[in-house]
Amino acid sequence: MTHDLHKMTCIEDLRQVAQRKVPKMFFDYVDSGSWTESTYRENSSDFQAIKLRQKVLVDMDKRSLASKMIGQNTTMPLALAPTGFTGMICADGEILAARAAEKFGVPFTLSTMSICSIEDVAANTTTPFWFQLYVMRDREFMRNLIRRAKEAQCSALVLTADLQIMGQRHRDIKNGLSHVIRPTLPNLWDLARKPEWLMKMANTNRREFRNIVGHAKDVHDLHAFANWTAQQFDPTLSWTDVAEIKELWGGKLIIKGILDPEDAEKAVQYGADAIVVSNHGGRQLDGALSSIRALPDIVSAVGSQTEVWLDSGIRSGQDMLKAWALGARGFMTGRAFLYGLGAFGGEGVLRALEIMYKEMDISMALTGHRHLQNVGRDILVKGTYPISEREQNETVEQKRRRIYEELYGWPRASLRFGTMW
Ligand SMILES: Cc1cc2nc3c(=O)[nH]c(=O)nc-3n(C[C@H](O)[C@H](O)[C@H](O)COP(=O)(O)O)c2cc1C
């Protein structure tokens, strides 16, 4: 297996290099899902089942994937997802990833559970990033986090709604990965075989959860931190808290972790500027729908009222193109950029973005389009993609209306003028 950055041609290449360079307990932390990992696997396999329609002899020159997410211009409609522990996948990981995102022209989201702090990432970047909020029982701490994110000029708050309690990943338990890393013999032996990682870690002092240590009450060291987090995720979090958070924040609010159309409707009601259809990358409720299968019902319920984005399982630009064709208007990726980061640091994140851009761009061209904004469901082979329950049950007249709206973007004229069909 080559370790040459320029020979990395797909996300799987980056994954394999990361596996060799990142200590096993951290690589497994990234590369696993909860319980049987069925949702984790289906997040990817459900994408693969969708087939694209090839079109030939159409003008494919001068293409563009440029888009907007919550009004912000992006090179392609993709943001780096919030991921905890990122500074342990590679030293200073959050700063390196944020800089790569900045260079490529896509948003970066900093997790509450990051190693580098909000202030540190702000000081080392020039473009405003997004901040992801986990709501803790200690509401004073939460209010402080929101204040700090505002002071750091973060341009959106991403409220994660699907982690009031934590799903279980077997490998983390078996590897002894808690918030304090256990110095077991296998862990130490593994660390000894990852010299590049060790050397970079030795050269940074960013090795603890800096949004929390020194900020939360009585949390001044890693041991206190472990006890604190074990008790702090708030299982009572509810929609009424969302209203308070929106008010406190006062800026763009993205709600992440929606899988059900009723929840999507509530998110709109509570003022979400965008929602992320997500199962947390298969890390929470094992047995839940893959996000691409959940998408059509959610687009059907709220697609005309808010921006519907998607994450979980995106490993190529083709995945994004397919989800776009089904109505998603933005994406987040977690593991794809983490593999790049673990393999080659910031350069690897950039490479992951380049790979996915190229895949999306070429696939769009070969399905007959030059501008992403014109891509619709007609690029997909009928019978291979999921459709909403509403569509499955619609009458012939409803179907006509829907097709008309899809074609022309506005409701069909009233029957007074005669049917168009
Ligand atoms: C290693 C890892 C850590 C994560 N940590 C967080 C986190 O701190 N906050 C959060 O909202 N989501 C977190 N997530 C979920 C991601 O934001 C995102 O929903 C998920 O990675 C998308 O799936 P994908 O990895 O298949 O792209 C994490 C995901 C991974 C893989």
From TrEMBL:
One of its GO terms (biological process) is aerobic respiration. Its cofactor is FMN. Keywords: Flavoprotein, FMN, Oxidoreductase. CDD domains: alpha_hydroxyacid_oxid_FMN. It comes from the Bacteria. One of its GO terms (molecular function) is FMN binding. FMN binds at residues 82-84, 111, 160, 256, 278, 311-315, 334-335. One of its GO terms (cellular component) is plasma membrane. Glyoxylate binds at residues 29, 132, 134, 169, 280, 283. InterPro entries: Aldolase_TIM, Alpha-hydoxy_acid_DH_FMN, FMN-dep_DH, FMN_HAD, FMN_hydac_DH_AS. Residues 3-385 form the FMN hydroxy acid dehydrogenase domain. The active site is at 280 (proton acceptor). Pfam families: FMN_dh. Belongs to the FMN-dependent alpha-hydroxy acid dehydrogenase family. This is L-lactate dehydrogenase (Cytochrome).
